[in-house]
Design brief:
This protein is α+β, with helices and mostly antiparallel strands. The protein contains three helices and three strands; from the N terminus they run αββααβ. A hairpin with a 2-residue loop joins strand 1 and strand 2.
Length: about 80
C-alpha cells in the first residue's frame, strides 16, 4: 500500500494551503517513518485539539499497515521559525 499517498490525501482535505503539503519517507530498523510537512498556519489543523486529528491519522495508517504486515509511523514536521 502507498502510505505516502494515504497521508497526503488525508492532509489535503484538512489544510488551507494544499500546495504546501508534502510527505517524506525514511526507513529505520524496519519501520517506515512518514514526515508530514504543511504550511505553518495549517500545523494546528493537522495536529488538532489535544492531538486528536494527528492521532486519528496515525490510527488509520496503523490499521492499514497492520493488515499488510508493515510497520509505519506518522509525524508532523516542526516548522522552523524564520
Amino acid at each position: 500500500m502507498d502510505y505516502l499517498a494515504l497521508v497526503k490525501t488525508i492532509a489535503l482535505s484538512l489544510v488551507t494551503k494544499p500546495e504546501a503539503v508534502e510527505v517524506t519517507s525514511s526507513t529505520e530498523e524496519g519501520v517506515q517513518r512518514l514526515l508530514l510537512h504543511v504550511a505553518d498556519e495549517d500545523t494546528g489543523r493537522v495536529i488538532g485539539r489535544k492531538g486528536a486529528t494527528i492521532n486519528a491519522i496515525r490510527q488509520i495508517v496503523r490499521v492499514s499497515s497492520a493488515k499488510a504486515g508493515d510497520s509505519v509511523e506518522v509525524d508532523v514536521a516542526e516548522n522552523a521559525a524564520e
